[in-house]
Structures are given as structure tokens and as C-alpha cells.
Specification:
Largest sheet: none
Radius of gyration: 22 Å
Order of helices and strands: HH
Low-confidence stretches: none
Strand content: under 5%
Mean pLDDT: 86
Structural class: mainly alpha
Helix content: over 70%
Distance between the termini: 50 Å
Shape: rod-shaped
Number of helices: 2
Length: about 70
């Protein structure tokens, strides 16, 4: 949600300052790309502890619980 608000304020600021529409479109595209990338990195960092717990659980199950054939 924060990313969307940032992009909208960014677009409004560019439009108010009198920048050409082509520049506004280019800047909006770059801003959307950067904010989406940072949002994805944020989600990965938020899920990282759970991914580590799952990896340790799988490792423990394979090495200590599962029967070898």
C-alpha cells in the first residue's frame, strides 16, 4: 500500500511542477519498477525466518526421521 501511495504522490508532484507528459510516464515507469522490486525484497525478508524453519525441518526429517531404503 505504501508503494502505491508513494507512486501517486510522485506522479502528482511531477504533474504540478510542469514536467512534460513523456517524462512523467518514464519516471512513473521507473518508480513502479523500483517500488515493485523493493516490495518483493521486503516480502522475502519478511518470510525469511519461516523459510529457514522449513529448511531446517526438512533437513531434520531427512536425516533423523525418515527410514533409508
Amino acid at each position: 500500500m505504501f508503494e502505491l501511495i508513494f507512486v501517486l504522490v510522485f506522479i502528482a508532484t511531477l504533474l504540478v511542477t510542469g514536467i512534460t507528459m513523456m517524462t512523467v510516464f518514464a519516471a512513473t515507469g521507473i518508480a513502479l519498477l523500483v517500488m515493485m522490486l523493493l516490495g518483493m525484497i521486503g516480502v522475502v525478508l519478511k518470510l525469511l525466518p519461516w523459510l529457514i524453519v522449513i529448511a531446517v525441518g526438512i533437513w531434520f526429517f531427512k536425516n533423523h526421521v525418515a527410514q533409508t531404503r
